[in-house]
Amino acid sequence: MKAALALFALIPGLALAQVRDERAGPPAQPPGWSLGVAIAAADSPYVGEGARVLPFPTFAYEGERLFLRGIAGGIHLVDTGAFQLDGLVSARLDGFDIDDLSASGLADNGLDARLLDDRDHGLDAGIGASWSGSFGRVRVHALADVTDTSGGHEFGVEYTYMLRSGAWTILPSAGVRWMSKDLTNYYFGTLDAEVARGVSRYNPGSAAVPSLSVAATRPLGERWSFIGGFTYRLLPDELSDSPLLERDADGIPSLFGGVSYRF
């Protein structure tokens, strides 16, 4: 179950980004629900998890003020069409069970799996803003853990440009997320309780994680659409050097494709 959640967490916004992006130019998406199914493939950076290929449901709701896009949702506090200011809530599905990692791989990295704790998922809340026009879309967000799982926070900025080719809408994006030291230490470092048991201390500190992605959508009739995409998150040295990760884990690639139905 956690493997499926982890895959889903790697692609937030890609399957559903076109819902908002298409508002930057005609035709606009009407409000309502969309449901579908997709298949995702991702290469986990954690020791022994490897590549995963799993099906998962996609879902979204776009209302006049409320919206839901997979693991994230919120409310439009201001929406002029070209500018949106949103209150945001988003699940952080970066948690993992130590039993899912390779004990021998951890040992090679100097860690005893028996002394390590699981990492839990969290829930973030914050604000986001986006500006859309002929130049594309710029989106920024600020999120903080409200469950005290990591106690961390994150700031991000992303630029997306919309291209049309026949029936296809292509959405290339580039962005970067700055993660606080509490956030990175929890998911990539060793915990104080683990260090007290004899585990070597590793605290990566704050880190910036760049990403490149491209999403694509194409109508398949009046209500059906194809949605798909690829994203690559580049791990900086302070994260890729984590003993919880494979030694050659410099980035996190993920790929997905599926269909959705708009009600």
From TrEMBL:
It comes from the Bacteria. The keyword Signal applies. It is found in: Cell outer membrane. Keywords: Cell outer membrane, Membrane, Signal. InterPro entries: MipA. Residues 1-17 form the signal peptide. It holds the Pfam family MipA. PANTHER family: MLTA-INTERACTING PROTEIN-RELATED (PTHR38776:SF1). Belongs to the MipA/OmpV family. This is Outer membrane protein. It comes from Luteimonas terrae.
